[in-house]
Amino acid sequence: MTIATVAPAYTGLEIFWFLIIAVLWSGYFVLEGFDFGVGMLLPVVGKTELDRRVMINTIGPVWDGNEVWLLVAGGATFAAFPNWYATLFSGFYLPLFLILAALIFRGVAFEFRAKRVMPQWKLAWDHAIFWGSLLPSILWGVAFANILRGTPIGPNGHYLGSFFNLLNVYSLLGGVTTLLLFALHGSVFLTLKTTGEIRERAQGVAKILAPAATVALLGFLAWTYVNAHHANNTGIVPPFVPILAIAAVAAVGWLLREKLEGWAFVANAVALVGLVATIFLNLYPRVMVSSISPLYNLTIGNSASAPYTLKVMTIVALIFTPLVLVYQGWSYWVFRARVRRPGDPIDTVIDVSTPDVPPTGAAVSGAAGSGSTDDDGGAP
Fold it and tell me: Predicted confidence band at 9 (pLDDT cuts at 50, 70, 90)?
């Protein structure tokens, strides 16, 4: 992938908001990616109800905060590029509806799982968490692959295709790629947040997922490169961006073997950022590609709001974004301790040995305004 030598002239605000939206999606993939991964691994790493409760409590204080990145990305797209938003939601209505439904059931499962002590009740909500994590993990990759590959967009941004236009080998590979990267991200996260057998199982799963995720990412980015050159539109992707993404995920397995779990988590985060960056840089200056004609492509120019709107949005973003980042960083710091089962080595301060009880202000999942999951007592 090469850097384009000539690019159309756009205002700084249009470019700025395209960059901001790319950053928001990168943050969403990195942060929501690991709690999607934890949810998908519930039946794999969690052998007992107690194991699964421990796993859920690792993401209890942060999962709903991670979803804020999606809300802000969607809101920013609606306000900054309304034509992009309109075409995207009309053309991708069914997959976006499925993602929304999965996220709703997943959120309800976190809240309701601890309301009753019956094993069947908990197992049913565990299934909801699994599917509510699995579906978005696949569908986000499918959606972004189709945005980049091209969909049947006609004049005035009208989507002329159907749901089946979104099902193709390239987009399905994109879905498999995000699925494996999120699952790997979650398994590495569990190695950082748990102890004992759960941590060992998570390490074993991560070592299996790392090479699979590397192959999937390599295949997807290579195919993206071929598609871009075939269409004679490579965007402005510096070659080091996709290369760095592939190298980072390839290093995860080695870092795990060297007992460098923290660096393994960082490496996988770099791979996710590199994936999103490659997609957005390859798109630029387009935001959606028309498979009918390049004349019908949506760009940051023909889909943007008025300059005054972008200016007001920029002022608001510059004021409030640092505050949100500081708060979210503080919440991660507060809940940085490992979650352990009774009998595991006492190298942490959070214990889940007591029965499920309703959320309280001092509980692991209830403090700092976070969403509750299984509240088991104890405070970090």
Answer: low
Fill in the DSSP letter of residue 92.
Answer: T
Helix (H) or strand (E) holding 351: strand 350-351
Distance CA 136, CA 95 (A): 9
Q: How far apart are CA 99 and CA 209, in angstroms?
A: 24
Map tokens 């959070």 to a residue.
350
Average pLDDT of the residues in 110-134: 90
Q: How far apart are alpha carbons 253 and 211 in whole angstroms?
A: 7
**What is the C-alpha separation between 10 and 8, in angstroms, rounded?**
6
pTM of the shown model: 0.86
36-53 pLDDT, tens per residue? Answer: 999 999 999 988 888 999
CA distances to 221, 238, 242, 278 from 214, rounded to whole Å, are: 11, 20, 12, 16
pLDDT tens for 54-67 read 999 999 888 988 99
Residue 26 structure tokens = 């990168």
Give the separation between CA 18 and CA 211, rounded to whole angstroms: 32
Rg over alpha carbons for the chain, rounded to the nearest Å, is: 21
Mean pLDDT confidence for 139-167: 88
In whole angstroms, what is the distance from residue 209 CA to residue 218 CA?
14
Burial zone of 361 (CB within 10 Å; 0-12 exposed, 13-18 middle, 19+ buried) = exposed
Question: Residue written as tokens 């988590």?
Answer: 265
Residue pLDDT, tens place only, 218-269: 999 999 988 887 777 767 888 889 999 999 999 999 999 998 999 999 999 9
Residue-range domain boundaries for the chain = 12-181+282-369
